Amino acid sequence: MKKYRIGEFAKLIGVSKSTLRRWDEQGKLKSKKDEKNYRYYTQKQLDKFKKADKKEQANEEKNIDDEIILILKKEIEEKNNHIKELQEIIKREQELRLISDKKILLIENEMKEKEENNSKVDKVFKEKKKKSFWKFWK
Predict the structure, then answer these.
(1) Calculated CA dihedral for residues 62, 67, 69, 72, nearest 10 degrees
(2) What is the dihedral of CA 13, 18, 24, 28, to 10 degrees?
(3) Domain annotation for the chain: domains and CATH numbers
(4) Could you report the per-residue pLDDT of 78-133, keeping only the tens digit for each?
(5) Distance (Å, rounded) from C-alpha 83 to C-alpha 68?
């Protein structure tokens, strides 16, 4: 089984020697000691650390993914609320347009009636004018 001295192991896992010593004292990653009382670590410990590190990275990535999902859900909710607001505005605009169209129709009908009445009045006036003209010449 391969043995790694503290400096070599520290480089392999990307931490300082002092971190390894602290972890050893805390019992997080216990070193073994050789016959000269030097610290060393085994291949099994390296494999275990790398496996744990991969799990931690996966958890961190999952947490980041979860955060992104929450942000996207919030954005979707905001967009949906904005869409609802726009739909309400469109609905009000359509209602106003319908009211305007009805008013326009009413005004057009009133204008037609007035034109018809004016036409009748004009006819009556012309008739009276003719009669009065001929009365004058008689």
Answers:
(1) -160
(2) -50
(3) 3-123 (1.10.1660.10)
(4) 999 999 999 999 999 999 999 999 999 999 999 999 888 888 888 877 777 766 65
(5) 22
